[in-house]
Amino acid sequence: MDFSNLQSRASSAYIPPHRTQLHPRMHSFSSFASPNPKPSQPRDRWWVLLAAVLIVPFLFYLFAIARGIHKSSKFDEWRPKGFGVIINAGSTGSTIHVFEFLNEGRIPFVGYDGKGSNSMKVRPGLSEFRDDPGRAGSSILSLVEFAKARVPKSEWKKTKVRLMGTGDLGRLDMDVRKAILESCRLVLRSSGFLFKDEWASVITGQEEGVYAWVAANYALGTLGGDPKETTGIIQLAEGSIQVTFSPRGSLPIQFSRVIELVGVTYNLYSESTFHFGQDEAWASVLGLHSSQDLGSFLSSSEGIMKNPCIPKGYSQKLNQAEINTSDGKQLASQLAGNFSACRSEALALLQKGKDECFHPPCKIVSSFLPKILGNTVPPDTFYYTSEVCKKQQNLEFLIYFVG
Question: Catalytic: which of 100, 128, 208, 271?
């Protein structure tokens, strides 16, 4: 075969590849493929202009979405939304609580930054100023300073401060109680916080139980839901015991407390019984020691009173104001640390006065007590008792103890 007529192809000559030689994704570009394509400046300008027209609105869209996400509650929940200050004026002392609300929503989230305690207690209680009511306000000055150290100064004027008196304060003469509260109002008015005179008041035992119920269900995450899913509380306060829960069915008006939270209405049973709080019950036990019912615990010759309700190794002097004896002498409390004997004394305390009951069964709470459904939690003192007795924070110990 004669190859002389064949011309060699210069390297610059270009033969487009067949479509079968191209990757399928390159088919659309095969017509433009060239080893030395010549730029088409007008066409490139149009492409750049078109891209800019499309990209700029898209960037604005992305910016708007990012801004909306940044403002959403999910990203904003750890930013402080406000503060609240509560002073609980109890029988043995006054305690201040500083709360920081971290987000907005149906129920504000109360945070804790771990920088220090959010509460502080001072003694004595406001009721101890009954003989000099004007000095009552000075007893809470340190509490106000504590709150100022926890709340940023820029937030003072927007932060509400409330004082709620409980226990012995509510049993004082009306004029004395008003004078004590007014002394405290003078301090709170000049505190720099947001305050109104009606925000310093004495609350009833039933109201105390309702507040404890709200706090417990907030902590458990059931607040704002179905009333049947909420948890009841049994609270052992200083001077009284409160039982509060959401029952099924109607209630007598004297035991009913209706509250509305986040659009849900709760009809609560709330009962408060005085003389069975921690401090009052202890004083009653001391009184029973001097009675004839518990005379076996008293040795008049040595002036020694055995107390089985406190562990051994502790000695306590009791004066005439704490325990009344026939001859008025001072006694020493000898602590025996006997659980069985202590339980017997507690039962004697609970049995006391049953001869005056006209509506059996005679219990320490009202004869009207709806059936407790669901769970109950024992806050405060009952909680610690349950922990010590290894009862997993329930009421088994309490039920066993009161028989």
Answer: 208
- State whether 193 and 121 are in the same domain: yes
pLDDT tens digits for 70-98?
444 444 444 557 899 999 998 889 999 99
Determine the average pLDDT of the residues in 332-356.
70
Residue 240 resides in a domain: yes
As a whole number of angstroms, the distance between CA 218 and CA 213 comes to: 8
Kindly report whether the global pTM for this prediction surpasses the value 0.70: no
Share of residues in the chain with pLDDT > 70 (%): 54
Q: In terms of Cα–Cα distance, which of 400, 398, 403 is closest to 236? A: 398
Structure tokens at 169: 């304060």
148 and 236 part of one domain = no
Contact 204, 272 (CB under 8 A): yes
> How does pLDDT run across 255-293, given as a tens digit for each residue?
889 999 888 999 999 988 877 777 777 777 777 665 544
> Does residue 155 have an active-site annotation?
no
Say if residue 211 is in the same domain as residue 176.
no
The predicted structure's pLDDT at residue 149: 95
Range of the domain at 284: 279-350
Regarding whether 152 and 102 lie in a shared domain, the answer is yes
3-class secondary structure per residue, the chain:
CCCCCCCCCCCCCCCCCCHHHCCHHHHHHHHHCCCCCCCCHHHHHHHHHHHHHHHHHHHHHHHHHHHHHHHCHHHHCCCCCEEEEEEEECCCCEEEEEEEECCCCCCCCEECCCCCCCEEEECCCHHHHCCCHHHCHHHHHHHHHHHHHHCCHHHHHHCEEEEEECHHHHHCCHHHHHHHHHHHHHHHHCCCCECCHHHEEECCHHHHHHHHHHHHHHHHCCCCCCHHHCCEEEEECCCEEEEEECCCCCCCHHHEEEEEECCEEEEEEEEEEECCCHHHHHHHHHHHHCCHHHHHHEECCCCEEEECCCCCCCEEEECCCCCCCCCCCCEEEEECCCHHHHHHHHHHHHHCCHHHCCCCCCCCCCCCCCCCCCCEECCEHHHHHHHHCCCCCCCHHHHHHHC
Asked whether the beta carbons of 359 and 233 are under 8 A apart, the reply is: no
Residues 94-112: what's their mean pLDDT? Answer: 80
